[in-house]
Amino acid sequence: MLNILSPSILAADFNRLGRNIQDAKAGGAKWLHIDVMDGIFVPAISFGMCVLKSIRSETDLFFDTHLMINEPIRYVKEFAELGSDGITVHVEACKDVATTLKAIKECGCRAGLTINPSTPTNVVEKYLDMTDMILLMSVEPGSGGQEYIPESTERIKEVKRMIKTSGRDIDLEVDGGIRLNNVREVLDAGANVIVAGSAVFHGDIKKNVSDFMQILNGVNK
Ligand code: DX5
Ligand code: ZN
Fold this sequence. Notes:
By secondary structure, this protein is of the alpha/beta class. It has helices at 17-26, 49-56, 76-81, 97-106, 152-166, 183-189, 198-201, 205-216; strands at residues 4-7, 31-37, 62-68, 86-90, 110-115, 133-137, 171-175, 193-196. The two termini are 16 Å apart. The model has no long low-confidence stretch (mean pLDDT 97). The protein is built from 8 helices and 8 strands, in the order βαβαβαβαββαβαβαα. Helix 1 runs parallel beside helix 8 (205-216). The chain binds D-xylitol-5-phosphate and zinc ion (ZN). D-xylitol-5-phosphate (DX5) binds at residues 8, 10-11, 33, 35, 66, 139, 141-146, 175-178, 195-199.
């Protein structure tokens, strides 16, 4: 499966958001990870519709929208219409996970399902035939710049095994605390979509992305 980098704009400089995104693209990024937080499912409030709308008009990157909000089904259609390509919801935040995933697909988006570090991995098993991507949180959701939780590596392997058994073509994304010095471990465990916020947007964005891409493309094995 193709390895993909999904730079999280949560760590961008919002005063220069457009330029930061262009730099990520210039470094070779094809996806953008967009963290929407509601202040209820997670304590923080990040950004929402108007930011998506503005950046959608400026870039053709794949919008990987991560909804850290309660009952995300309320907003699926709106985020799809604003140009999300994939929408990922938390199993912990949905009353009816299956209906929420179905709503995402009906809007023409790729449906992702995510779990917090404390949620048992086998929870996702019964939804595998309805999802295009599983997102494993490797930090508690809610803020960027945290340390990767080491137990996540074993959890990636568990979910990868479930995906293999399902026989379906499902991406496995990992989000939180991923940097150049631990991304290889995450890939080796079975992830193929890597979220990186602070490790991309702090410093030389173009160089950071291209350093990640070298590892993701196997150049630095
Ligand atoms: C955490 C967010 C992450 C975060 C990752 O709640 O879902 O996407 O931006 O940031 P880093 O890579 O800095 O841990
Ligand atoms: Zn995220």
